[in-house]
Design goal:
about 10% strand; DNA ligase D polymerase domain-containing protein; NHEJ_LigD; 4 helices; about 220 residues; binds manganese (II) ion; LigD_pol_dom; alpha+beta
């Protein structure tokens, strides 16, 4: 992570201990090499719904031939990262992320929303937050500690752990032993690089059909 571009206002951790690296690297800051799929449950969204959506994400990634690397967020959601070649700017990667999110929403319309305004979202649904791919937007890095009473840690998991993981169990007290036993489950991420071209085709198709690309929000959610 040392060569990740820093957050614009902080070189190190957030006030709550979160380490928020950019999705681009210092060598090429304007071209992200990490597509981030952010599973953001609404306030009344049960974690089982997060699990179900993670499986749908996995299914669509498989069909695309993309390898996704899941982790708990340390909060109530999950993050799935995909390595991409640094060939597109933030806006294009965000368009690709939106097209992917819309496909997941089509497959799980009860569970997922991509609705732009928070006030228009059903709080029991999961928002697939494609905005985390916008420039200046960051999410907690793998292994960063969150400012929660239990000291939860954003923890890499295997796909076959999705149905059993309890994010509250992964804390500063437990993750060191887990890491010692399993190693870094995201260690292979650089070996599985996915070209987002098919997602940009999906985005073209959706936009031709009248779908809009909402403006980039100024603040993080
Ligand atoms: Mn999130």
């Amino acid at each position: 992570m040392r060569d990740r571009a820093p957050r614009r206002d902080l070189g190190g951790p957030d006030v709550d201990g979160r380490v928020p690296p950019w999705n681009s690297r210092r060598a090429d800051i304007e071209r992200p090499d990490e597509w981030r799929i952010d599973l953001d449950p609404g306030e009344q969204c049960p974690f089982d719904r997060v699990r179900r959506v993670a499986h749908v994400v996995h299914e669509v990634l498989d069909e695309l031939g993309a390898t996704g690397w899941p982790k708990t967020s340390g909060g109530s959601g999950m993050h799935i990262y995909v390595r991409i070649p640094p060939e597109h700017g933030f806006d294009e990667v965000r368009r690709a992320a939106l097209a992917f999110a819309r496909e997941v929403e089509r497959r799980a319309p009860e569970d997922v929303t991509t609705t732009w305004w928070r006030r228009d979202r059903d709080p029991a649904q999961l928002f697939l937050d494609y905005n985390q791919n916008a420039r200046d937007h960051t999410i907690a890095a793998a292994y960063s500690v969150r400012g929660t009473p239990r000291g939860t840690v954003s923890t890499p998991i295997r796909w076959d752990e999705v149905d059993d993981v309890n994010p509250e169990d992964n804390t500063i007290a437990t993750v060191p032993a887990r890491y010692a036993a399993l190693g870094d489950l995201h260690a292979g991420i650089d070996d599985a690089v996915f070209d987002i071209a098919p997602l940009l085709e999906w985005a073209d198709r959706d936009e031709h059909a009248g779908a809009e690309v909402p403006p980039v929000p100024e603040t993080e959610e």
